[in-house]
Structure formats: structure tokens, C-alpha cells
């Protein structure tokens, strides 16, 4: 449908649409390809960033674990602590746990028996019930590192046996991952981190507003969706090997990416508009360079069809191909003009003498009569021309006819002859002279001038011939305003004239008989 509508447009519009469409399609394809490449690159960079951050986080947790192991070994190796455990001296145990915890900045110091039952703690804010349900899940073995969620807080703990010399209890030392720790991790990783317990968010470096709008547990963004999504963060869940139903999610901010994408979109739109402007401008200039010569050629074609064969010279430079085409039109116009002139000449002229034929002179007489001009029409006929033609030959007969035409032309050129003088050879030995007059008395003077020109001898190969000529005369003042009728009136009395003249004898000079037709 679009192509059908496009075909109906002008050539200039089609070129403009074509250029604009190609620019838009090219720009869109390049933009899509760039976005897909950018999306793949950004996703790869984010995955790489997540990989390094995950390794750094694991290294940090491993270091913390080593600190806990060292502290646990120091605590469980203390003789006084072992004695207090053995004697079940609760106050001494609580004091020892509190002092040791303060030295290493531990947030959790707990002592449990071999059955996992609670003995003592450095923090009275934790009740036996609160701790037991978490501690009972711990496997009682040699040194064991774990992460636990206690009262909406994440703890990294170490469980170490107290031996004297056999295991008599277990000491649990832990660091709480609080907001300060999360901030430190955020600075270290250059990413936000969220800890979850049983797929529920426990602690996060993200603000509450962000957590309310972001689904950190949702499907991760990939490919082009990463660029087109309105999400503010890219989330990557990671597994923690020593966690007890504890997991973490690393979050990378996409604000910078969105700002870059917005700038890219704006730059792309501006580039498209700029390129479109340039393309449309250049296409219109190009189409003008094409359509102007075509318009010029159309004008020349119309002019030629109207009969004007003059092709004007180019006033401005056209493309070489169109200049050649224009030159071809010029040659074609010249050839058509020549053929037209030849056809017109053959249609209007007697080919032997070059005088008008019967059709042409009748038409021109009618034109003069319509202009209210008066016409005197003289019909000339050579007596016995057929017999003469048979005697001297067709070629010599043609020479005589040409000489007659030449003498009529000399008559036409005389200064006293009116400017409207028509000469014709309608038949083999018949000639017509049509002259404009203002009154009938002018006819005698014109006849005298015509006789002076025609009655001179004709010379043919050194022999002079005298021809007898009939004159038939008609005029529009007396015989009507119709060319055909005037010619018929001037030609009517030929047989009668012939009888009169053949009774006379002639010498070298032709004897003429004037017959005025009423």
C-alpha cells in the first residue's frame, strides 16, 4: 500500500522519501546493533564485577573466620576458663566471655554443653530460648564456622571445643554484621550487599525506599532488557558455603548506565534528525538537478508538439547524462523540423516548379478573403502542351514548365506588384496567379505586366519556341468570396478560347487571347 502511494508521488518526492527511508533504516539498524552490543558488553562487565566482588566478599569472610578461630583457640586454651567450665562457675564464665569478647570486639560469646544446652553468654539481652533454637542446629564437632540469623541480625560465628583434656563444652564466638559492617563491605566491594535468611531480607546496605521498589529476589535482567528496564539495580545472588540458610545478593547501581542510555538516545535522535536534514536537503538538491532538466525536456517536448522546433540553449549546467539527453532532443527537434518542412512542402507545393498546389492556393485565397481583401485570379493555360510534350520529350517539357514558374516568380518580384501575390501550378500545363487588388481597373495593368514577362520566347538547346497561352480571369469583386469558385470561374472557358485561337496563324511570338469572364 505504501509503495503504491509512493509511486503516485512526484519524482522529487520519491527521491526524498527514498533517501530519508534509507537513512532512517540504516540509523535504526546501527542503533539496534549498537544497543545489542552495548547490552552484551554491559552485562559482561556487570558479571565480571559481580565475580570479583563475590571473591572479595568470600576473602573478607574468610579473614573474619580466621580471626574468630584464633580468638576461639585463645579462649579455649585458657586454664582459668577451662577450670570455670569444669566447675560450672557461671559468674566466672560470664565474666570471662565478656572480657574476651571486648578484647576482640566480638558481638556474641556463648558457652554450651556437650548436648548443645546453653551455659553462659556475654550478652544478657539474648534469652536462652532465643539462642537455643539457633544454636541447637549447629553441628557439634571440632572447629566449625557458620553464619546464623539471630533476631533479625546476621552473625558470622565459630564453634570451638573446650578440652580438659577431653571435650567438656563448646565455645561460640561471633561477629554481628551490622550497618557499619555493611557500609564497610559496600566500600570494599563497590557494590551494595543484602543478606537473606530463608529467602527473607535480614540486612541490606540498600535504603528502605530502594528495597520497597526493588525486587532483589526477582529474575535477573539480561541482554537488551538490561538497557530498556527501569530498574535501578542489577542484582546477582551468591551462595555462602558456610551459611545456614543464609544467602547474599550483590546489587550494582544502574543509574549511571541509565544516564548514559538517555544521553545515547538523545544523541541518536539528534544524529538522526541532523542526518535526515542533510539527507533531505541533499536529496532535494539532487532531485532538483534531475527534475529541472526533465521539466525543461517536458517543456521542449510540448513546444515541439505545438510545432515550435526551436530548442533553446541550456542556461545552467546539468548532469552530463541529462545534457547528452537534452542534446539528443535538440537533434531530434531539428530532424523533426526538417521532416515536417519536407512533408509540408510536399503537401503544399508542386515538386517540379516549387509553386503552390491547388489545395494550398485555395486555402490561402480563402484566408485573404476572410481578411476582407479583394482578389484578382488569373488562370494561365499552355495551348497544345501535351502534343508539344510528346514532340520535344518529357524532360524538355519539364524545362519549359520550370521556366514558366521562374518567369512567374520574376513577375512576383516586380516592385509594383502587391505584396499578396500567390503562384500555383494546380495541373500539368495550368498556372494560377492570385493578386490582391483594391479595384477592378487594376487588373488590366497586372495582365500587361504578366504578358511582358511570359510572352518572351522560350529557348531550348538554341531553339526559340513561342507558346500560345490562354488567360482566364476572375475577381472577388464580381464573382464571389470563395477560392474554389474563383478558380472554377477562371478555368471555365478554355475550350471556347481554344477554338478562337486555333484559327489564327503565329510566328515566333505567341498570340494571346484575353477572355474576361462575367
Description:
There is one protein chain. The protein has helices spanning 2-7, 11-77, 79-87, 90-104, 128-135, 179-189, 208-213, 225-228, 255-305, 320-348, 358-370, 385-392, 394-413, 442-454, 476-479, 483-491, 494-501; strands spanning 108-112, 118-121, 144-150, 153-163, 167-177, 192-197, 200-204, 233-239, 246-253, 374-382, 421-427, 430-437, 458-460, 463-465, 469-475, 513-516. The chain has 518 residues and is α+β, with helices and mostly antiparallel strands. Helix 12 crosses helix 13 (394-413) and helix 13 (394-413) crosses helix 14. It is rod-shaped, with a radius of gyration of 62 Å. Residues 494-518 have low confidence and may be disordered.
Q: How do the strands line up in the largest sheet?
A: 2-1-5-4-3
Number of helices: 17
Strand fraction: 15-25%
Q: Outline the low-pLDDT stretches.
A: 494-518
Keywords, separated by commas or semicolons:
alpha+beta, about 55% helix, five-stranded antiparallel β-sheet, 16 strands, five-stranded mixed β-sheet
What would you say about this model in short?
With 518 residues, the protein is an alpha+beta fold.
SSE blueprint:
Blueprint (H helix, E strand, L loop, with lengths): L1 H6 L3 H67 L1 H9 L2 H15 L3 E5 L5 E4 L6 H8 L8 E7 L2 E11 L3 E11 L1 H11 L2 E6 L2 E5 L3 H6 L11 H4 L4 E7 L6 E8 L1 H51 L14 H29 L9 H13 L3 E9 L2 H8 L1 H20 L7 E7 L2 E8 L4 H13 L3 E3 L2 E3 L3 E7 H4 L3 H9 L2 H8 L11 E4 L2
Parallel strand pairs: 15-16
Antiparallel strand pairs: 1-2, 1-5, 3-4, 4-5, 6-7, 6-9, 8-9, 10-12, 10-15, 11-12, 13-14
Amino acid at each position: 500500500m505504501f509503495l503504491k502511494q509512493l509511486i503516485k508521488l512526484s519524482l522529487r518526492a520519491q527521491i526524498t522519501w527514498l533517501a530519508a527511508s534509507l537513512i532512517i533504516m540504516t540509523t535504526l539498524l546501527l542503533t539496534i546493533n549498537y544497543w545489542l552490543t552495548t547490552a552484551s558488553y554491559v552485562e559482561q562487565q556487570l558479571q565480571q564485577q559481580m565475580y570479583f566482588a563475590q571473591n572479595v566478599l568470600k576473602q573478607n569472610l574468610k579473614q573474619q573466620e580466621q580471626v574468630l578461630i584464633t580468638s576461639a583457640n585463645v579462649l579455649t586454651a585458657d586454664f582459668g576458663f577451662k577450670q570455670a567450665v569444669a566447675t560450672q562457675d557461671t559468674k566466672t564464665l560470664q565474666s570471662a566471655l565478656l572480657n574476651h569478647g571486648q578484647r576482640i570486639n566480638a558481638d556474641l560469646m556463648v558457652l554450651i554443653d556437650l548436648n548443645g544446652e546453653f551455659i553462659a553468654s556475654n550478652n544478657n539481652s539474648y534469652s536462652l530460648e532465643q539462642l537455643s533454637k539457633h544454636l541447637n542446629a549447629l553441628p557439634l564437632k571440632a572447629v566449625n564456622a557458620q553464619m546464623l540469623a539471630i533476631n533479625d541480625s546476621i552473625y558470622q560465628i565459630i564453634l570451638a571445643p573446650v578440652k580438659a583434656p577431653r571435650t567438656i563444652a563448646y565455645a561460640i564466638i561471633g561477629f554481628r554484621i551490622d550497618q557499619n559492617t555493611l557500609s564497610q563491605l559496600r566500600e570494599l566491594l563497590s557494590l551494595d550487599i543484602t543478606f537473606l535468611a530463608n529467602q527473607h531480607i535480614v540486612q541490606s546496605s540498600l535504603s528502605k525506599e530502594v528495597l520497597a521498589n526493588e525486587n532483589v529476589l526477582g529474575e535477573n535482567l539480561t541482554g537488551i532488557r538490561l538497557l530498556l528496564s527501569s530498574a535501578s539495580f542489577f542484582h546477582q545472588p551468591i551462595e555462602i558455603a558456610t551459611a545456614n540458610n543464609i544467602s547474599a545478593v550483590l546489587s550494582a547501581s544502574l543509574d549511571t548506565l541509565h544516564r548514559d542510555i538517555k544521553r545515547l538516545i538523545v544523541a541518536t535522535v539528534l544524529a538522526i534528525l541532523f542526518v535526515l536534514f542533510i539527507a533531505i536537503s541533499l536529496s532535494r538538491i539532487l532531485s532538483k538537478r534531475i527534475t529541472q532538466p526533465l521539466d525543461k525536456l517536458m517543456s521542449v517536448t510540448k513546444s515541439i508538439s505545438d510545432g515550435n522546433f526551436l530548442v533553446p540553449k541550456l542556461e545552467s549546467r546539468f548532469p552530463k547524462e541529462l545534457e547528452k539527453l537534452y542534446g539528443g532532443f535538440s537533434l531530434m527537434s531539428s530532424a523533426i523540423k526538417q521532416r515536417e518542412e519536407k512533408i509540408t512542402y510536399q503537401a503544399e507545393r508542386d515538386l517540379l516548379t516549387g509553386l503552390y498546389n491547388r489545395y494550398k492556393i485555395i486555402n490561402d485565397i480563402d484566408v485573404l478573403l476572410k481578411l476582407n481583401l479583394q482578389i484578382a485570379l488569373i488562370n494561365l493555360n499552355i495551348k497544345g502542351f501535351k502534343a508539344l510534350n510528346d514532340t520535344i520529350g518529357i524532360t524538355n517539357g519539364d524545362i519549359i514548365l520550370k521556366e514558366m514558374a521562374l518567369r512567374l516568380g520574376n513577375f512576383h518580384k516586380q516592385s509594383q506588384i502587391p505584396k499578396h501575390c500567390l503562384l500555383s501550378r494546380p495541373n500539368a500545363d495550368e498556372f494560377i496567379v492570385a493578386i490582391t487588388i483594391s479595384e477592378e481597373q487594376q487588373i488590366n495593368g497586372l495582365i500587361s505586366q504578366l504578358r511582358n514577362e511570359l510572352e518572351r520566347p522560350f529557348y531550348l538547346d538554341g531553339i526559340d519556341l513561342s507558346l500560345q497561352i490562354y488567360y482566364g480571369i476572375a475577381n472577388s469583386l464580381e464573382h464571389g468570396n470563395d477560392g474554389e469558385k474563383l478558380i472554377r470561374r477562371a478555368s471555365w472557358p478554355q475550350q471556347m478560347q481554344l477554338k478562337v485561337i486555333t484559327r489564327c496563324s503565329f510566328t515566333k511570338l505567341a498570340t494571346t487571347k484575353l477572355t474576361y469572364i462575367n
